[in-house]
Amino acid sequence: METITTSPVKLTESAINEIKRLLNEEGFDQSKKLRIGVKGGGCSGMTYVLGFDDATAQDEVYESGGISYVMNPSHQLYLFGMEVDWQGGLNSRGFTFSNPNASKTCGCGTSFSV
């Protein structure tokens, strides 16, 4: 798999730091790749996918801020220009998604429609 330099998704510095922390956790399976994508479901129609997974033959490899990730190229339509951030505060903790393609999002912030 060859890395494609134009990343459809931007990772903030905070997200990059958290992903690096996860990658360096003891016992982390180094064969897994960071996957960013979408899947059907959720209260608004589609749900974001952010996790570690095996790469598939149809995946393309991208890089944002020194972090490489895999994505099914058909998901670019829904995710192009999206920003992934990490919030580490007491009130909100976790990854957040800011997607300019979403016409509607749910209250939980992980589901959207286009």
From TrEMBL:
It comes from the Bacteria. Transmembrane segments: none annotated. Residues 9-109 form the Core domain. PROSITE patterns: HESB. Pfam families: Fe-S_biosyn. PANTHER family: IRON-SULFUR ASSEMBLY PROTEIN ISCA, CHLOROPLASTIC. NCBIfam families: iron-sulfur cluster assembly accessory protein. This is HesB/IscA family protein.
